[in-house]
Design goal:
Largest interface: A-B, 32 and 23 residues
Radius of gyration of chain A: 21 Å
Subcellular location (chain B): Cell membrane
Helix content of chain A: 25-40%
Distance between the termini of chain A: 26 Å
Number of helices of chain A: 12
Number of helices of chain B: 15
Oligomer: heterodimer
CATH topology of the largest domain in chain B: MetI-like fold
Radius of gyration of chain B: 24 Å
Largest sheet of chain A: 8 strands, mixed
Strand content of chain A: 15-25%
Number of strands of chain B: 0
Protein name (chain B): ABC transporter permease
Shape of chain A: globular
Strand content of chain B: under 5%
InterPro entries (chain B): BPD_transp_1_N, MetI-like, MetI-like_sf
CATH class of the domain at 5-94 and 176-263 and 276-318 in chain A: Alpha Beta
Keywords (chain B): Cell membrane, Membrane, Transmembrane, Transmembrane helix, Transport
Distance between the termini of chain B: 11 Å
CATH superfamily of the domain at 5-94 and 176-263 and 276-318 in chain A: P-loop containing nucleotide triphosphate hydrolases
Number of domains of chain B: 2
Shape of chain B: globular
GO cellular component, one term (chain B): plasma membrane
Structural class of chain B: mainly alpha
Order of helices and strands of chain B: HHHHHHHHHHHHHHH
């Protein structure tokens, strides 16, 4: 964590009104992203990572309730307090996003070229011919063959991997400073997954942009990130540089997650290690640590009082009363 | 490409089959009528010789299949027979009345779309909000009012009280273009008000569901403004039900609208049909019904091709 943060999020809470009461999707989330680095946000499904990534660009449904003291700062801008027009100038231009499912990310009735060009026409003020030329270049950069022909085609004529490449080309079209990739490979075949991840890493390095890689797959995070943020039940529970986190995970949930990765040296047919129970869905406010019911190191205090996210001397963040390696 | 051609061939095959069925039904309609056709033409108490003469003239003395094929052949050549009452040929009568019905139909569709497109988009965009409830509620209210009541209210308002427009009657475009347009405003508006609520509600619900699609979030993430997303990303994929229902309406309206044409004294196809029925002018009824059915089928073929324009997925057949 060196240098000024490009993006910093603090005290972000998001709630959704439901018939059963207010669902707490995010609580007291804090996050810092430095320019040029890749931060992976890791968590189970339902841990709030997608809500977090969407709230940065204010893409949450209108009914979402944000905590009043939340702040999302991007290069001096207070994103939560920008008016609609100013926000539109950030979206796609300075912060771009790649979504999970390439099958639904593209408009089925518009050509690839039209969808690729519209962002550039809007933000870079290119005319149609210039946007067309740049679109061809972009498709080449994301590894799509015969790009001129692809521009004329419609999404249904492309494979899933190809569509995700188009979505990525759309995202990098205006040279954003931050790219948010929300589970960009979850809906793809394993072989294609690796290609897309390599492509993202290459682009991130070439463009020297910051990247947020949202994934439920610790393996993906390990190979493609500089820092890791672990989320659980709407909260950040641990943040550390990727290498540190894998070497010495401190929060019990992180340790359990790492333990759940099957290793090559495991005995054949050994039982996969799992975390018993399921992550809670929190309505209203919860008492105690959200991971306590599933935690192996649980103490009486954990069920009464929720720990805060605190920084250790090296600047890594942790939300646990009894982290591993503390005073041991 | 080959699939496209075979698709078209298949559709045209359908079309021919449907038209053939329609012609059989139209022809059979007259055969099934109780009583003798010649009697109904000549009236009660006609002389047997006169009846025999008329029967021979109409070919009623020939066997049924032969008569049907003869009639069908003539119809294909554009000859739908002659009115007994006036001696006018049926095709001439249709050609005279068609422009009125077409003008009414086109003007009403344009007005209905002018109302339904912006309001439907807006209501769908604000689904569940106050604006939506206001727009959808009023649409439902108008929908519940019968045609003729709407027409009468509009006549009262715009013709009787404000005296802006003539209450009824038709002026041909050739004689007085301005008068023609003035005479068509009230009927078109009435018809548009009948149809706009249906279009509006279809569009509204399709827009609302399109806006829940992921590609709309992607478009927002690109920095497009909401109205741009509505126009460039939402309208087209939300217009399929609208196009379907419009096609059905247009097909109907080519055959005229009996109520509106009667209310505003417009000499359209609908009036022609009603008059022919009232005077038992059976040749005319037969011809007009066949024409209406053919127009309906053709318009729906056209709608099928419009789907392919709207949705590229139908063009390439995967």
């Amino acid at each position: 964590m060196t240098g000024e943060a490009l993006l910093s999020i603090s005290r972000l809470g998001v709630r959704f009104p439901t018939p059963r009461g207010e669902l707490s999707a995010l609580e007291d989330v804090a996050l810092e992203i430095s320019a040029g680095r890749t931060t992976a946000i890791v968590g189970e499904s339902g841990s709030g990572k997608s809500v977090l990534s969407r709230s940065i660009l204010r893409l949450l449904p209108r009914k979402a309730i944000l905590s009043p003291d939340a702040a999302i700062r991007f290069d001096g801008l207070d994103l939560l307090r920008l008016d609609a027009r100013a926000m539109q100038r950030v979206r796609g231009r300075r912060i771009a996003m790649v979504f999970q499912d390439p099958m639904t990310s593209l408009n089925p009735v518009r050509s690839v070229g039209a969808q690729l060009a519209e962002g550039m026409v809007l933000h870079l003020r290119l005319d149609r011919a210039e946007a067309g030329r740049r679109a061809v270049e972009l498709l080449k950069r994301v590894g799509i063959s015969s790009p001129e022909r692809r521009l004329e085609q419609f999404p249904h004529q492309l494979s899933g991997g190809m569509r995700q490449r188009v979505v990525i080309a759309m995202a990098i079209a205006c040279d954003p400073e931050l790219l948010i990739a929300d589970e960009p490979t979850t809906a793809l075949d394993v072989t294609v997954q690796a290609e897309i991840l390599d492509l993202l890493r290459r682009l991130q390095q070439e463009q020297r942009m910051a990247m947020i890689l949202v994934t439920h797959d610790l393996g993906v995070a390990a190979g493609h990130s500089d820092d890791i943020v672990v989320m659980y039940a709407g909260q950040v529970v641990e943040r550390a540089p990727t290498r540190t986190l894998f070497r010495e995970p401190r929060m019990p949930y992180t340790r359990a997650l790492l333990g759940a990765i099957p290793g090559l040296r495991d005995a054949p047919h050994a039982r996969l290690s799992t975390i018993p129970g399921r992550p809670p869905t929190v309505y209203g406010t919860a008492q105690g640590c959200r991971f306590a019911p599933r935690c192996g190191q649980r103490q009486p205090r954990c069920e009464l009082d929720g720990p805060a996210l605190v920084a250790d001397p090296t600047g890594n963040l942790l939300r646990c009363w009894y982290p591993a390696g503390a005073g041991a | 490409m080959p699939t496209r051609i075979s698709n078209l061939a298949q559709r045209i095959g359908h079309l021919v089959a449907v038209l053939l069925l329609v012609s059989v039904a139209t022809f059979g309609m007259l055969e099934l009528l109780p009583g003798n056709l010649a009697y109904s033409i000549l009236g009660e108490g006609a002389q047997p010789e006169a009846i025999a003469r008329v029967e021979k003239e109409l070919g009623l003395d020939r066997p049924l299949p032969e008569r049907f094929l003869g009639w069908l052949g003539n119809a294909l050549a554009g000859d739908l027979g002659k009115s007994y009452a006036t001696g006018e040929t049926v095709s001439h009568a249709i050609a005279q009345r068609l422009p009125v019905s077409l003008q009414l139909m086109i003007a009403a569709q344009i007005l209905a779309l002018l109302l339904a497109l912006p309001l439907g988009l807006w209501a769908g965009y604000r689904e569940g909000g106050t604006i939506d409830r206001l727009i959808s509620g009023s649409a439902f209210g108008v929908l519940a009012v019968p045609h003729f009541v709407l027409g009468i209210v509009l006549i009262l308002l715009l013709a009787v009280w404000l005296r802006w427009l003539p209450a009824s009657g038709f002026v041909a475009f050739e004689t007085d273009p301005i008068g023609n347009i003035r005479s068509m405003i009230l009927p078109s508006l009435t018809l548009a008000l009948v149809e706009a609520p249906v279009y509006l509600r279809l569009l509204r619900s399709d827009v609302a569901s399109t806006l829940r699609e992921e590609f709309v979030v992607v478009a927002r993430a690109k920095g497009l403004s909401d109205w741009r997303i509505l126009l460039t990303h939402t309208l087209r994929p939300s217009s399929f039900s609208l196009v379907t229902v419009m096609g059905i309406n247009i097909g109907h309206l080519i055959g005229g609208t009996v109520i509106i044409e009667t209310l505003f004294a417009l000499p359209g196809i609908g009036r022609l049909l009603i008059e022919a029925i009232n005077t038992r002018d059976l040749m005319m009824v037969q011809g007009v019904v066949l024409f209406i059915a053919a127009a309906f089928v053709l318009v729906n073929l056209l709608v099928d091709t419009i789907y392919a324009v709207l949705d590229p997925r139908l063009r390439h057949g995967r």
